[in-house]
Each structure stands twice: as C-alpha cells, then as structure tokens.
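All the exercises in this workshop are built on plain-text protein records. An example says more than a description, so a record of this kind follows:
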Amino acid sequence: RLSVRARHFQLPCAVTGMRQALVLMWSPEKSVREEVMRAFVEVFIAKPGSSGRDFLPDEEIAHNMLVLTGQATASEKASIEEAIGQLVKEEKIPSEVFLNLWSIASKASGPTRGAAMLVLSMGANADPGIVDSLSRLRLLLDVGLGDDVQEAHDWYTMQSAAIALQKIGRAQAEAKEESAKAIILEQIVDRLSAVASGEWCNDDDEKDTTCWFSASEQAINAIFSICKKPERVCGDIVRSLASLTFKDSASVNSLRLSRLFFVLGHIALKLLVYSEAVTSAMRGASAAKSLAKQETADKAKHSKSRQSISGIDSDSDDAIEDELGVSAEAEAQAEQQYAEIADVEIVGRGLLGIFGPLLIRVVANEEGKYSSQVIMQSAVLALCKFMCISRSFCEKHLPLLFTVLVKADTTVRANTVVALGDLAFRFPNELEPYTPKVYACLRDGSTRVRQHTLMVLTHLILNDMVKVKGQVCEIAICLIDEEVRIRDMARLLFHELSKRSNNPIYNLLPDIISRLSTSDIGQASFREIMSFLLSFIKKERQNDMLVEKIVQRFPTCESIEQKSDLAFCIAQLKMNDKCVKILNDAAKLYKDALFDDDVFKTFSTMISKARKALSKPESKQLLDEWEAKVDSFSSAGKEDAAASSKATKAKVKASRRGRKSKKSVFQEVNA
C-alpha cells in the first residue's frame, strides 16, 4: 500500500518499490497475490483515488508499462510478466493499450522500442492474438528484425521481438503452404537465423558480442517455437557460423569463436528439449492407440460367447491381444532409441559432436593460449550444456569441470556452480561423488559464487536431489556470512528443513557441533550459529537425546574452549527431569572442565533454568545433588589448576636459575 500512496504523490520511488514488491506474485497465499494485483492496478492502470475502478488514458497506461519494464532485472521481469498476463486474462488492461504499444514500437527507437515489444510479448503470454496476426507479424519482421535494428546493432529490440515470436507457438505448421502468413514466417526464420549466427556482430567490439548473447539465445528459442523442422535450420546456422569462424586458417577471431561456442551449447540444449517433446507426443499417441485397441479387445471378449453360440469361429480378440503385446515391445524399443539419441547422437555422432574435441581443448587450456575471458565463459557454458545432454559425456568430463571451478575467474565459477545444479538434477549418481567439492564453493572468496552455490544447494536439498549430510556444516557457516542475502537464504533453508516431519536438523546437529567446534570461526560465531539451530528442537524426546549425545562428547574434546562450546549448546536446550538426571549421572564426563569460569557459569545457568522448570520434590532433590556435584568438582578443579600453575611457575624459575648457573661457570672458565 505504501507504493500506492507514493504513486498518488508522484514520488519516483513508487515504481521501484512496486517493481520489487511484485515478487510477492509467487506467494502461495491467495490473499497476498490479490493484494499485489490490486496495488499494481492502482499504481499503473487506474486513476489515483478511484480504488481501481476508473482507468487512466490508454497512452498513459502504455507509458507506465514501459517505465515499469525499463530498468527491471530478469527476475523482476518474470514477476511483471505474471502480473500483466493475469490482468490480460481478467480483461483489466484495455486492448487499446496494446495498440498504443504497437504504435510506439513502430515509431520509437532504441530501448523504448525494445521495451514496447517486451511488454507486448508479456501480454501475448496470456493472449497470443496480441502478436499472432498477419499485420503484427509483419511489424515484428520489419521493426523488430529489420534493417534499422541491424544497422544500429539494437540487440535488445531483436531479443524482445524473438521473445514475442515465441508466444505464437508452432504457427508455421498450421499455416497453409504459400499463404501470406507462411511466407512472412519463412522470412522471420531467415532473419532469426541471421541474428543467431551473429552475422551482424562487430568482430572488434567485445561489448557488441556480449549484448548479442541474449538476442541469439532468444532467436534460437523462437526458431524452435515456430519452425516445422528447427533441427535443419539450426544445422545451417552452425555450418554458417563455423565457416565464418574458421575461414582464416592462420588465426581465429576470439569473438567469433566465443559466438560459435555459445550457439553450439544452446542449440544442443534446445535439441534435447525438442527431442523430449517429440518423444512425449509420440508416447501419448502410442498410448491412445493402445487404449483404443484394448477397448476393441474388451468388446471382442464380451461378444465371444455370442459368436460361439452362432457358430462363428473368430480369433480376432487373440489377434488384438497379440498386437497389443507387440505394440508394448515396440514402444519399449522406441524409448531406448530416444534415450540413445540424447546420449549419443546430439553431442556424439551428430554435427554438434564434431566440435566436442575443440571445446574440451579450449576449456582445458593446457598451453594457456586462450586468455580471452569471453571465450572461456562461452566455452565453459557450452561444455556444461553438452554435459547436461549426455550421461557418458558428463561422466567423462566432470573432472575437467571441477578443475575449471578452481582455476577460472569469478564469472565462470559462478556460472559453473549453477550448471552443476542442473547436472545434479539430471545425473545425480554421476555427480554424487563430487558433492563435497560443490559444498566447498560456499567458502569461495567471491560473494557471487557463494550466493549461487547456496542457491543451488538449497534447491537440490529441498527437492531431495542431494542427501543432507555432514557437509551441511558449510551451510551453517553461511548463517554468519558478511552478505545479508546469503545469511537470509541459509536461514530460509533451515526453516524449511525444520518443517519436515522427521526434522533432519536434529539428526544433523551432533555432527554440526563437532565440526564447528574444531573449526576456526571463533567462539562468538559458533554460539550465534548454534543458538539459531538449537531453537528448532521442539520435541521433548529429541531434546533429551540431544543432551545425552552432547554430554558424551566431553571426553573427546581437545581444548577447554571446545568443552565450553559444548556446555553452551546444552544450555540452549530445555531442562526437564530427564535432562537433569542425564547431566547428574554423567558428571564425571565433564568434571575436569568445571575449573573454567565460563564452563562453570554455563552449568550454573542450566541449574537455575532447571529450578524454574521443575516443581516435584524428588526432582528438586536430584537437582540439589547435581548442583552439589558441580560445585564440588569446580572447587576441586580450581585447586588443581592453581596447584598446577604454581608448579609450572616453579619449574620455569628453576630452569632459569640453572641456565644462570651454567652461564657463570662458563664465564669463570673463560677467565
């Protein structure tokens, strides 16, 4: 509501605040989503003070949409698209607004033109008719992919036009041959191919290629959306780009090579998605055919007795059942063939596989020839995409990928960590031995790498793709990270884990305590982490068992600091009859630590807490016994510590006197 009030007063922070608040569009609570939508309407569509009933002029709404998307991040754009799509479905955005946006797109230039096309694509996500018409396809061709944007190298507008084209679907398949729509779509595909192959890129301008990456990605996506046979078009793109890259046998332009690698990786990934979609469609068709045959067989069984009575000898039902069995076998063979296509054909025996050895050589960079960061970034990204496709390719080159993870620059490491999350999701068994190395990235010096690593691990753990083991101690350390977003994400992960019925945090705590107490994070940090984690222990049985497990660790401690940390952990738990009994019976395990003032003070705090919680006479009697032991062991320990300290000092003095005596004898001899 604050953003709404700020907008009414024309404050510039209103748009920024609303843009950030739109992330609540993904809230699971319906009331939250509805409130966000009401605020969105009041800020950008309705007149101030009308409570969303009276709309602003169409031109002003269109302008507001452009302002909203202008400086938005990728995640903010996803939220904006969801909001606009919902409003289009509910017919709360007048159709005239999109006509104004088309007008702006055809007349404006630069970022305004690109933003207008992007908003149109967002609306088309809910209503494809916004872009799917002959006249609008012509506008997308002439304005979004035309000569003007080519000369200006306006990659943002090309990217937005390609995104809009993806909302059409496989329209070319539905268009009649030689129809006006089919001809325009064919011209659009030619233009998209030119964008994807980077024909218009400046080979001497690295920034131009960097901006091209996003446009090429969306152009390839659009080709797979509107083409009947996208694999053929993409094959031509690869051949054209390879010919352009290697036309000079003496040397290769680094930006051309980086563009080739980028296109290879993205086409490979889209081919996998495309082949899986075709497989799914064929599987559905086969299932429908089998179901029809099964229904025919069932009908034949019901009529069999009638046929026998009438003297008709028919084995049609047996024939149908035999055919169903053959069909099932054929379907299994087809599934095997589809799996082989993904594992062998796409990045193995196919056109893309030809470039595999070159890709590996560049990523390995054993001779240090490839110093360009752009080449390394696109090469590593392409390698990761190839690995996501083929299990055998992935298993073979995982060692190389983890070598890159150690040696590469920050951007490559951050991108590689995200790719490892995809690999773990697709091939969990192959990546499982490398899990400790992924956790090790949480200690990376780069905030960006740590954040990406934690994001990936959070996703994998909450989706049960990675088992929560001892390495989760590394995530616990993130609770004290200097970056607030990392701390918040770590807290979110533990909160989500605590909601599970088995509460895995309880099972992890003993190992976390053991590892953290021997680490170099410092006592203050240790106690901050453990205070947070121990707050999730709610069940009495888990509380009691954890007290017993912790107290058993005292004899294994190597320093008084570790024992002090264990005592602190016990003090964070609830004190009840059983806990007091456990601590009283196990007093011998920690008695040698009670000479320390901090340890003694912690145990005294436990006793005070127990006195407030226990009321039974027998419980108080046990508590008095425990308190007496603690006091006794503390006094004896302090006396022993004082005597030991005194003896040590005496030994040091004696040693000094001995050295002085030897020195004086030596001087007399020399004299």
